[in-house]
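go over both lines:
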Amino acid sequence: MKMSKLATLVGAGLLSLSTAQASLLYKISGNEMQEPSYLFGTIHLICAADFKVAESTQTALQESDRVILELDMDNAQAMQAMQTKLMDPEGNKISAHLSEDQQTMLDSFLMNNFGAGLAAFDGMRPFILSTMVMTTQMGCAQQMSFEGYFVQQAMGQGKTVDGLETVDFQFGVFEQIPHQEQVQWLMESLEQPDKAKEEFAKMLELYLAEDSQGLYDMIAGMDAYAEYTELLLDNRNRDWQTKLHAELQAEGTEFIAVGAGHLGGEAGVVQLLRDLGYDIEPIATSAE
């Protein structure tokens, strides 16, 4: 998997729609549930001009008793812990895998966009730096986060927020991908910026069209992606299946929001919940 591909994955969700109907919002019922719950597919970063939350999504959020995200983002300690994990735990240097010309290119890019050169970022985890690069290629100065919005709304409405994973777990996922390979992906996004922008634009187009299956197919079709499908998507979805089953059987209504890339496919969250006997009904939002 090359870095422009990983950037797309990060955007879709760090990151099965068996029905032909496109949707990002689903109503979950059946399987002896006392109240229905809701599932929503996010994109972790989106330009402010493209950010919108449909009325049906707002209603689902308001009807819910609590919000469940990939991470518990209203947990100050967890968010602080994330800031302490930006550097590579093994002390690996990005520059160790770069030619002199590549070092010069990366140094210049970082200085021009972030006000500091390679020396300041050399010990950072490559996937973190790649996400930073992606934000500069999105074509907008202001970005929004669905997760951040849902946390803000939950706090304002007095709802609790929970997470399916911990910060340690999410960072540990990327620790299983070789450092050198992540650096190669990083440099591809710089050396082929038009390609990276085109892929992100395609991903955004699919997201705005609420084409969950199209998003999954795009991610699954990436070069060399098959090597990491289990690690980055399928295994995490199966772990969520068990956790979500327990949550859905408990009292109250949940609003579950995860990266849209996790919804489609045979091992996607939608299909896995159906496998457990839940009724998953798409709710149209694009026409609102």
Notes: Residues 1-21 have pLDDT under 50 and may be disordered.
